Amino acid sequence: MDFDLTEDQRILQEAAREFAENELAPRAAASDAAEGFVREQIDLCKEMGFLGMAVSEAYGGSELGAVGTSLVLMEVNRCCASTGVTLSVHNSLTCESLMRFGSDEQKQRYLPKLAAGEWLGAYALSEAGSGSDAGSLVCKATKDGDDWVLDGTKLWISHGDQADLVVVFARTDADAGTKGITAFLVETSWDGYKPGKKEKKMGLRGSSTVELHLDHVRVPAGNVLGEVGRGFPLALSLLDTGRIGIASQAVGIAQACLEASIKYAREREQFGKPIGAFGAIQEKLADMATRVDAARLLTLRAASLKDQGKPHGREASMAKLFASRTANDAAKEAVQIHGGAGYTRDFPVERYFRDARVTEIYEGTTEIQRLVIARSLLAS
Ligand SMILES: Cc1cc2nc3c(=O)[nH]c(=O)nc-3n(C[C@H](O)[C@H](O)[C@H](O)COP(=O)(O)OP(=O)(O)OC[C@H]3O[C@@H](n4cnc5c(N)ncnc54)[C@H](O)[C@@H]3O)c2cc1C
C-alpha cells in the first residue's frame, strides 16, 4: 500500500497551491463581500488548465484523473471555496458527464470549448419539490418531431446564469418513475432558457446559485445525453464523482481552518503566553489536524479507486460524509480559537465557517450519504 503521491502529482499539487495562494486567496474576501460571480478567478483558472481536468487530451483537456483533480480542488478551496464549487460542478459533473456518456459527436462539439474554458458547464437536477428525492422531478420533456421541448423550473443551479452548457434532467415519461427521466445537453443561448431569482446565500457568496426557468426550450434529439429514460442512473453515477469533488472542497476548507488556527494560536497571547500553550487549544488543534488528514485520505482513496476503474460509490459517500463534517467541525473550532476576532470579517475563519456549511447539504446531504453507505453495507 502506497500513501505517497507520484512525482507528477506532487508537482501538480505544488503548482495548484502556489497559484491559489497568489491569485485566488487575495481576491476571495472581496468576491465574497461583492456577492457577484468569480469570473476573474475562473479566467485565471482557465490558464492553468483547471477547466479541463476531467477531459482527455484528445479533446484539449488536461486529463488529470480523479486524484489529480482532487488535489487541485483541495488547493483551490483552501483559498477560495466560491471558485472551488464552480470548478467542481464544471469538471466533475458537466465535463465528466460528456466524457462518460456523450456520443463522439457531442464530445467533439462541446468538450474542446469546455476544456479550454471558453464555455462554462452547469448541472440542473434539483427542483423545488425534488431535492434529496431527485427521482421525483417534474420538469417535462415532450417529443415534438425530432426534437424535445423542455418546460419547467429548476432550483439551486450553481452558475446557471453564467453557464453556456447545462446538463438538464427532465421527465420524458410521466408514468415510468425514475425510468422516465432523461438527461439533455442544453445550450443556454437557446430560446426559452431563462435564469431566474439569484439566491442570497449564507456562504459561497462569490458563486451564483439560481432558479432556472425552461420555457419551451427546443432541444434536438442529438442533444439527449446517454439514452432516453436512462437519465436517473446517469445522474446518480455522476454524483459519485461530484461527491469526490465536494469532499475535496471540504478538505480544502478544513485545511485552511487548521492553518489559520495554528497561526493565531502562536500569535495571540493571554495570561502572558501564546494561547497555543494552553492544553484546551492544543487539543482542538490536534483533533482538527487528525480529522483533516483522515478526510484527505478518505477522499484520495475514493479518487484513486475511480482512477483504477473500480467501484467507488460507497467510498465517495464516506469521503463526502466525513470530510464535510470535518470542515464544519474545523470551522467551528477555528472561530472558537480566534475568540471575538473570529466572529468578525477581519479574519477569514468567519468566511470559512459560512462556506463550510453547504458541504453537508449539496450533492447529497449528510443524511443521504449515510443512507447510501448503509444501503451498500446491507446489500453486500
Ligand atoms: C449552494 C447550493 C448549490 C447547489 N447547486 C446545485 C446544482 O448546481 N445543481 C443541482 O441540481 N442542485 C444543486 N443544489 C441542490 C442540492 O443538491 C440540494 O439542496 C440537496 O440535494 C438537498 O435537497 P433539498 O435542499 O431539497 O433538501 P431536502 O431534500 O428537502 O432535505 C431537507 C432535510 O431532510 C433530510 N432528508 C430528506 N430525505 C431524507 C431521508 N430519506 N432520510 C433522512 N433524511 C432525509 C435532508 O437530509 C435534509 O436534512 C445546490 C444547493 C445549494 C444550497
Write a structural description.
This protein is an alpha+beta fold. The protein folds into three domains: 7-119, Acyl-CoA dehydrogenase/oxidase, N-terminal domain (Butyryl-Coa Dehydrogenase, subunit A, domain 1), CATH 1.10.540; 122-229, Beta Barrel (Butyryl-CoA Dehydrogenase, subunit A, domain 2); 232-379, Butyryl-CoA Dehydrogenase, subunit A, domain 3 (Up-down Bundle), CATH 1.20.140. The chain has helices at 7-34, 39-47, 65-79, 81-101, 104-116, 231-267, 279-307, 313-338, 349-357, 366-379, and strands at residues 121-124, 140-144, 147-158, 165-171, 181-187, 193-198, 209-220, 224-225, 269-270, 273-274. The strands form three sheets. It has a four-stranded mixed beta sheet with strand order 1-4-5-8. A four-stranded antiparallel beta sheet has the order 2-3-7-6, covered by helices on one side. A two-stranded antiparallel ribbon has the order 9-10. A hairpin with a 2-residue loop joins strand 2 (140-144) and strand 3 (147-158). The site of flavin-adenine dinucleotide has 21 residues, from strand 1, strand 3 and helix 10.
